[in-house]
Amino acid sequence: MRGPFPTDGLYDPKQEHDACGTGFVASIDGERTHRIVELAVEAAVNLTHRGAVNADPQTGDGAGVMIQIPFELLQDEADRLGHPVDRREDLALAMVFLPPEEDSRSAARAALEQAVVSTGLAVIGWRVVPTDVSVLGTWAAEAMPGIEQLLITKTAAFRNNFGRALYLAGRRAQTAWRDQNLDSYIVSIGDKTVTYKGLMVAPQLSHFFPDLTDQRTVSSLALFHQRYATNTLPNWKIAQPMRLTAHNGEINTLDGNRNWMTAREGELSSEIWGDDVQDLIPLIWPTGSDSASLDEALDLLIHSGRDSLEAMMMLIPEAWESNPDMDPALRAFYEYKACLMEPWDGPAAVAFTDGEIVAAIQDRNGLRPARYQVTADGLVIMGSEIGLIDLPANEVVETGRLGPGHMIVVDTVRKRFLHNDEIKREVASRQPYEAWVKQHVHHLDTDLEGRRNGSASLTPEGDLPSRQVLHGMTREEITSVLIPMARNGKEPVGSMGDDTPLSALMDQPRLLYTYFKQRFAQVTNPAIDPIRERVVMSLDTYIGRRHSILEQVPEAARQVHLSSPMLFDEELSHLKDLDIEGYSAVTLVAHFPVAEGPAGLRPALDALCAAVDQAIDDGHTVLVLSDRDTNAEHAPIPMLLAVSSVHHHLIRNGRRMRASIIAEAADVRDVHQIACLIGFGASAVNPYLALDSLRLLEAEGEFEDDSLEDVFWRYKQAVEAGILKIMSKRGIASVASYHGGQIFDALGIGQELLDHSFPGTTSRIGGIGLADVAADVLTRHAAAHDGQIDRGGWYKFRRDADYHAFSPTVWRALHKVAQGGDYDEYKTYAEIVHNRPPTTLRDLLDFNSDR
Questions:
Q1: Alpha-carbon distance 651 to 757, whole Å?
Q2: Which sign, positive or negative, has the C-alpha torsion 691, 694, 695, 696?
Q3: Residue 532 CB neighbour total at 10 angstroms
Q4: Interhelix angle for 639-652 vs 671-679, to 10°?
Q5: Would you say 58 and 150 are in contact if contact means Cβ atoms under 8 Å apart?
Q6: Complete DSSP assignment for 141-190
């Protein structure tokens, strides 16, 4: 079986995403029939046009169905194995993909059996799933795993939750397989549902799995899925449905979601799991598709005590932050959950089931189709489009579509079909969320209403020019970026592209931010319009200690709410002095000794991380990393380096959820720089040098009759609009999901530095190391004594400044050639281009030829 795929050349399995067709079929009365299975297969077949095929047209991108465990079929199998099972609720089933080699297959079976027994359950025996390989394409047949089912039952002494014990067994088995390097995969394991899926197109499904045409295979609900991914390789494992879900769309925040789930592992606690909670780690396996990771998160929450509807509303919340008409109880529910977990955001239509209810949810933007029909005899069909099943029009009593953030549910136990408002009211009323939020969530806006005018400055008088030089600010940046932002309330418009050399190829030092490039949406995912769709966008941020997502306690809401990740000086000062229960802020200086040269940066980073550990041990829940206290003896640690190093240090030692990080930074002023800090772990940013610079410009009359308050608020407006623009290009609506997501590629940073301070960031080439970063800082530190701000020349061509590939010299030579010049003039142009300083990667290449 091929996969999960290792990193190979430019391919990275972390980039797996998929977008497909999906849906469910269910009977409201809960009656189990073979017709439901037939209809699910028919619906999947009618979604074939949403699937993809290989060059070998018989190999599909993946298709499958999830149904309730076919007890009548498996009861006969249990009898054959010598372990009769009389009650449906006593039988469980694991559907497993096993290695092709028999030795490995035996070892994999033994590991799963041992995991099952260790949870107090009993093994009935193995069943080889009947299959017809002849219907598969060549590629799919060659990659086909062994497909077997392990029948499981309770022991006489078993008194625990059956489904929870099976989930734990599955996690233990996966860990054992990984430790033994066994290429095995649990397709599904549980006491209620089983998944039949594979690397095929939907019309092959029932032919490949004869179980699906057996009249003993009955169910009252079924998920179906036909996969089409424009940017992933086909794989038996990532065909859908997963263990609980079938997903059409992309989770654009996947990197951040996975990072935060990893960060939570060190602080994981649960009364339900007790010491067994450690067996659930890793919470999210590092390889697999975005759909698989979402499914794992839902699986974890459900088996840790949360209802499936509550868990899915927690993972994919609707756009509640800017909706003034939302029911207060529901708003409180979402706000409480926001204190626990960031949204899994992106275009998503998700069908899911726990075996008793089957439901569908739409993402907050409504960017994937999800439509449903209800018939007079209680059949509900939900799918990516209407018409998946041919129903007489006179039998359809209700037709609808899921709006943004909406849900529908078929509850086969209570025999009810539930619409969005009814579902949300029921879930939001289960706990006193309003009381918890009112008591514990502290709103910064309420504290400082009318007092955030930016009048206070903490920067010493007369120190400004030196600090501007020290932190790389140029006159061009002030005039071309800072002033337009403060004057117009939005980023200045420039031409696309950058014709200056890559930062790693520059002789002059550049800020570390320039080595990172934003990644944007894939072809299957349209960008959001952050202006017209502002109602679904959110800049709301919560800071403070985060509690375990596996528990639900009022104290989890002890968070300070910020309406924006950008802080004025007064706001940061207030946060530093805030005195409320469960909250404590501390300022940690980010600098290194000049006398030690470039070699002093690494020990200073280590000392900063050690100080962070001590601060957390002392009970501080907000860490303010500050470069204010730099002087002649100390140079600043680049704030991006400080933030990301601390962020990942805390993840590695299991303390990340105990405190939030705020950056009090002088080397940040434009939108990309602030977005970098947020993306690499800062909850909020105070760009104090930019504010000080604007304060001086306003005093000098640069903004005419505008007040300082107006200037500051327009600058903040520009920053916020810029962050929303960046998020929207990635298809992300909430800054809470962008936070810590590391949605960047590095260009010109060496692997050693990436592994230490920016792990998980993709770099296609090598580049600078920590000593080079320190040398750049020390160069600016030496120049800061003169206080002479450089003119700049990055944004616009200036003589004796940054090289520009499209400089006047180049254009004049090109014009002469284009306007009828002779060969000598072409050679002049070619010589200018070929002899330029290295500007792009291709300039570093040469021909190696014997001709």
A1: 12
A2: positive
A3: 7
A4: 10
A5: no
A6: HHTPPEEEEEEEEE-TT--S-HHHHHHHHHHHHHHHHHHTT---EEEEEE
In three-state secondary structure terms, 117 is: helix
Q: State the Cα angle at 633 between 585 and 610, rounded to 5°.
A: 40
**Rounded distance between C-alpha atoms, residue 533 and residue 537, angstroms:** 7
**How far apart (Å, rounded) are the C-alpha atoms in residues 4 and 203?**
26
Q: How far is CA 334 from CA 245, 289, 341, 507, in A?
A: 22, 26, 10, 50
Q: How confident is the model at residue 13 (pLDDT cuts 50, 70, 90)?
A: very low
The amino acid occupying position 144 is M
For residue 522, which of 290, 681, 737 has the smallest C-alpha distance? 290
Beta strands in 413-461 (DSSP E): 416-418, 442-443
**Cα 729 to the center of its chain, rounded Å:** 14
Residue 541's Cβ-side half-sphere holds a number of Cα atoms within 13 Å equal to 24
Q: Are 146 and 100 contacting, i.e. CB atoms less than 8 angstroms apart?
A: yes
The closest of 264, 311, 303, 357 to 119, measured between CA atoms, is 303
Residue with token string 């959820």: 657
Q: Rounded distance, CA 355 to CA 348, Å?
A: 21
- Joined tokens for residue 314: 């927690």
Given the residues 20, 339, 609, 676, select the one marked as catalytic: 20
- Using alpha carbons, list the distances in angstroms from residue 99 to 68, 137, 184: 26, 19, 6
Residue 614: what pLDDT?
98
718 close to 671: Cβ distance less than 8 angstroms: yes
What whole-number distance in Å separates Cα of residue 218 and Cα of residue 223? Answer: 13
The model's confidence at residue 50, banded by pLDDT at 50, 70 and 90, is confident
Alpha helices in 60-101 (DSSP H): 71-80
Residues 6+ apart with CB under 8 A from 701: none
Q: How far is residue 191's CA from residue 87's CA, in Å, rounded to a whole number?
A: 12
Strands 560-562 and 442-443: parallel
Q: Are the C-beta atoms of residues 471 and 780 closer than 8 Å to each other?
A: yes
Annotate 319-330 with three-state secondary structure.
CCCCCCCCCHHH
In sequence order, the β-bridge partners of residue 33 are 219
* DSSP output for 598-626: GGGHHHHHHHHHHHHHHHHHTT--EEEEE
Query: What sign for the dihedral angle of Cα 574, 578, 583, 584?
Result: positive
650, 558 contact by CB (below 8 A): no
> With 90 as the cut, is the pLDDT of residue 58 above it?
no
58: which residues sit within 8 A by CB, 6+ positions away? 135, 136, 137, 138, 140, 200, 201, 204
DSSP, collapsed to helix, strand or coil, labels residue 72 as: helix
pLDDT tens per residue, range 161-202: 999 999 999 999 999 999 999 999 999 999 999 999 999 999
- Can you spell out the DSSP letters for 565-595? SB--HHHHHHHHH---TT--EEEEE-EEEGG
Percent of the chain with pLDDT over 70: 94
pLDDT tens digits, 787-798: 789 888 888 888
Which two three-digit tokens encode residue 482? 């800072």
Q: Is the pTM of this model over 0.85?
A: yes
Query: What was the pLDDT predicted at 5?
Result: 42
Cα distance between residue 811 and residue 98, in whole Å: 63
Go through the chain and tell me how many residues it has: 851
Task: Write phi, then psi, for 548 (nearest 5 degrees).
Answer: -65, 135
Which residue in this structure is represented by tokens 């590391």? 742
3-state secondary structure of 222: strand
Average pLDDT over residues 594-602: 96
748-763: average pLDDT: 93
Average pLDDT of the residues in 317-340 = 95
Q: Is 339 a catalytic residue?
A: no
Measured from the Cβ of residue 387, the count of other Cβ atoms closer than 10 Å reads 12
Handedness of CA 566, 572, 574, 579 (dihedral sign): positive
Of 770, 24, 52, 777, the closest CA to residue 471 belongs to 777
